[in-house]
């Protein structure tokens, strides 16, 4: 049965960027560096509620662009974090980075601070695609930066985007091949989605561009599965591939339903079945903390059955799927009692498969995962 568990993972949101890319709907502010000192003071205040010497197995700094901060600003943030947390012996300390932020000095600083995993927002190795996505780097710069980074922090991941207007299958193959040539141990691939409120949403509605056909997007995704697997990167989650031992342990915490702390604007915490999310507005988050008010904008107490159903949704994202026996032991519900009709429907459709121990998505199911999991709610 599900028991109370103390988090051993923490997410820190750093909401600053030089520029908001047209497809991005994350919690961030661009060209607002005058707010960084206020943000750091607020983080010190929010972290003060944790206590001291809480041990973390995983720590993840996301954004925004955490490496947009200067070395001195990062040092202040790290001081605040490690005034309350300590890293376990076998820890994973990840940070998201923009390639052009990673100077020699900053890479050395991150290494000395204990960062042992870097996730780079590369997105493409094609100049035209990078221009469309409003990225500020060029392919050759990525080669140089990755090689410099990996000489200090070997566990480097690349984020890549496919199904971009103007992109074809050959172009996508070239981008994946460049990633493999860099000997990257982890790759995340995401189909471009247009979120309401972004500048891309307005441009698409105005007919300025159209996304590639779904059939082409599917071909790109299927090629990723075959190509990256043949290069030794195992497909371990719908969008993620890694060499053995290089899976993102922090993200596995989310996918396996374990608790975690979240700090910063828009960040979520999950503890004992209760989810809390900080306000997504950076200004509102800053104002509330400065006034001594709660920064939480949304909270939800999940019932035992809701926890179990949510575990199905996240568990199906993992390529290993859901261990039926362990699911029952942890959540107190039989998977088939909760979802027999949904499982039957999608097994017959070829989107799910059953093994002796697991229920999991098929390759075809991965292409339609969002549609499949709706039936498990």
From TrEMBL:
Cited CDD domains: Radical_SAM
Location relative to the cell: Cytoplasm
GO terms (BP aspect): porphyrin-containing compound biosynthetic process
MF terms in GO: 4 iron, 4 sulfur cluster binding; coproporphyrinogen oxidase activity; metal ion binding
Major subcellular site: cytoplasm
Keyword Glycoprotein: no
SMART domains for this protein: Elp3
GO CC annotation terms, alphabetical: cytoplasm
SUPFAM superfamilies the record matches: Radical SAM enzymes
Residue ranges constituting the Radical SAM core domain according to the UniProt record: 2-234
Record's keyword terms, sorted: 4Fe-4S, Chaperone, Cytoplasm, Heme, Iron, Iron-sulfur, Metal-binding, Oxidoreductase, S-adenosyl-L-methionine
UniProt entry tagged with the keyword Nucleotide-binding: no
Similarity section: Belongs to the anaerobic coproporphyrinogen-III oxidase family. HemW subfamily.
Purpose: Probably acts as a heme chaperone, transferring heme to an unknown acceptor. Binds one molecule of heme per monomer, possibly covalently. Binds 1 [4Fe-4S] cluster. The cluster is coordinated with 3 cysteines and an exchangeable S-adenosyl-L-methionine.
Record-given protein name: Heme chaperone HemW
Species, as recorded: Gimesia aquarii
């Amino acid at each position: 049965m599900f028991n109370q568990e103390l988090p051993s993972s923490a997410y820190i949101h750093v909401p600053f960027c030089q520029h908001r890319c047209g497809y991005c709907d994350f919690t961030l502010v661009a060209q607002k560096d005058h707010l960084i000192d206020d943000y750091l003071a607020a983080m010190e205040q929010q972290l003060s509620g944790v206590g001291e010497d809480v041990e973390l197995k995983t720590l993840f700094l996301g954004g925004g662009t955490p490496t947009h901060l200067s070395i001195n600003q990062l040092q202040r943030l790290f001081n605040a974090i490690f005034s309350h947390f300590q890293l376990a012996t076998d820890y994973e300390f990840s940070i998201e980075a923009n390639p052009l932020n990673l100077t020699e000095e900053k890479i050395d600083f991150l290494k000395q601070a204990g960062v042992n995993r870097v996730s780079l927002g590369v997105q493409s190795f094609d100049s035209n695609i990078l221009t469309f996505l409003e990225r500020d780097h060029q392919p050759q710069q990525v080669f140089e930066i990755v090689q410099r980074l990996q000489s200090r922090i070997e566990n480097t991941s690349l984020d890549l985007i496919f199904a971009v207007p103007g992109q074809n299958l050959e172009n996508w193959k070239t981008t994946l091949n460049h990633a493999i040539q860099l000997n990257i141990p982890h790759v995340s691939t995401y189909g471009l989605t247009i979120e309401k409120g972004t500048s891309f949403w307005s441009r698409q509605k105005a007919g300025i561009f159209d996304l590639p056909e779904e059939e082409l997007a599917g071909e790109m995704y299927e090629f990723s599965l075959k190509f990256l697997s043949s290069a030794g990167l195992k497909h371990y989650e719908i969008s993620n591939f890694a060499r053995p031992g290089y899976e993102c342990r922090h993200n596995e915490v989310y996918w396996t339903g374990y608790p975690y702390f979240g700090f910063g604007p828009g960040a979520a915490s999950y503890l004992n079945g209760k989810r809390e999310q900080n306000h997504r507005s950076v200004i509102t988050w800053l104002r509330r903390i400065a006034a001594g008010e709660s920064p939480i904008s949304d909270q939800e107490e999940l019932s035992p059955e809701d926890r179990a159903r949510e575990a199905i949704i996240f568990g199906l994202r993992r390529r290993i799927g859901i261990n039926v026996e362990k699911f029952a032991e942890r959540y107190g519900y039989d998977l088939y009692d909760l979802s027999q009709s949904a499982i039957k429907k999608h097994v017959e459709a070829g989107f799910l498969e059953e093994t002796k121990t697991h229920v999991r998505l098929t390759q075809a199911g991965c292409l339609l995962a969002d549609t499949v999991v709706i039936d498990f709610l």
